[in-house]
Amino acid sequence: MIVMKNVYKKYSNGVVAANGINIEIGRGEFVYVVGPSGAGKSTFIKMMYREAIPTSGEIIINGINIGTLREKRVPYLRRKIGVVFQDFKLLQKLNVYENVAYALEVIEESPAQIRQKVNDVLALVGLTHKARMFPTELSGGEQQRVSIARSIVNVPQLVIADEPTGNLDPETSWEIMKIFEEINLRGTTIIMATHNKEIVNRIRHRVIAIDGGMVTRDEFGGDYGYES
Length: 228
Known about the structure:
It comes from Sporosarcina siberiensis. By secondary structure, the chain is an alpha/beta fold. The chain is built from 7 helices and 10 strands. It has 2 domains: 1-80 and 156-228, Rossmann fold, CATH 3.40.50.300; 90-155, no CATH class. 37% of the residues are buried.
């Protein structure tokens, strides 16, 4: 599903965030991306949904070379990719139902389809009873559940999560991981950048370690491998 070929990314300030990355990630995999702060993890995942554009090299997502993708085609690429952020990025003036429905409204789904899909995904993340509440009325864990629901309501082939448990307490973090596990079991590829050593060591998946913009380790069922 994801292929990176000799990918480099150098920012205008001279920082090299990707330094010759070569990687392949198959459909349905669950991959942790780990490494120290400033190692290039965020750039690594941002390049997958074209928030960051590589300086050179190729990134192919589901057969599409996104480096040469025309700007007007980028929104169509992102419709097939769900993104979950550490700080949730919810629309504060919309309630839970409306935040999730918005992802379908922008692609002009029918009202009946929106209603069905939103209700289904809110049930999956355990928020059916809070559909009419606003983000300020929710806990951090509940807000992250809304963010996850919004990212998967369009049934994407790939979900990218950037430190999704970073602002959450340990108990809530485990609850969020159960949701990601369920999404993965349904066939969705998950790429998760994380500093959570306990989660990586307990729920074993493939681990890609990034340091100095390079892949320094890539192992299936690996551990976190850094002091936290």
